[in-house]
Amino acid sequence: MKSKAQPGMVAALAALLLFCFSCSRGSSAQITDKPNAQLKTVTLKSGSVQVQVEVARTEIERNRGLMFRKDLKAGKGMLFDFAADQRVSFWMKNTSIPLSVAYLGSDGSILQILDLRPFSEEPRPSERSVRYALEVPQSWFTQVGLKEGDKFDIPKLP
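RESULT FIELD:
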């Protein structure tokens, strides 16, 4: 038995395919195998300890983070600024550098420090709501003597 396509049905199908194609192109533009461009930086201080950080503020910047970077020098890092306090989770997809992450409260207090394994897709959630996450080379917090309860002065962020 032969069926004949209705003209309206063909137009609707064509519109649906065009919509799906345009949606997939939009989302793939955000997925890339390149690192974030150099983001704006600030210096965080905790007592005599300083760390120069790139600030990831947009969703795209935060999602890409330090992916695809080849190295991260001591005294450097990335600060993830969330719009409001919330529970967050980090993983190391496409990230080859061993990192430590500190979850910070809105006042800059270190609430939790975790070590992260390169390329691990295991989620490492915060135990409670945080405002910021600070990624640095693994063991940096120990090397400079910072621990949970210590506090960073958070300057006005770019």
